[in-house]
Fold:
Amino acid sequence: MADQPTTTPSNAHTRPAGQVLLDVREDDEWAAGHAPGAHHLSLGQLTPASVPAGSPVLCLLRSGGRTGGAVDVLRPAGGGAINVEGGMQAWAAAGLPVVTDSDRPGAVI
Structure:
C-alpha cells in the first residue's frame, strides 16, 4: 500500500462539490447507517471503472483500517482517492449525522 492522502470525517462531511463520498462497507453495514449523501459500493465490488473518472473520491469503511485497500484500487481512476481517517466510527464519534436509506437516524455496526 502506497502512502495515501487522508482527510478527517469533518472535512469529508463539508467536502466541496464534485468530491464523491464512497462508503465501501458491506451491505448490512450500509443499511444500518451511513453518511448522508454517500454512495455505496462494497469493497469486493470496487474497481477504478466503478467511480467517475477524474473525480476525487473520499473512501469510508467502518474504522478506516481497510479503506487503504480501496484507495489503492481507485488510484488508477485518476481523480485521487482519499482515505477518511477512522472511517464511519470516527464519523459518528465526531457527532456527524448517520442515516438509513429512509433518512431515519442510523447506527454504525
Remarks:
- The chain has a mean pLDDT of 86.
- The radius of gyration is 12 Å.
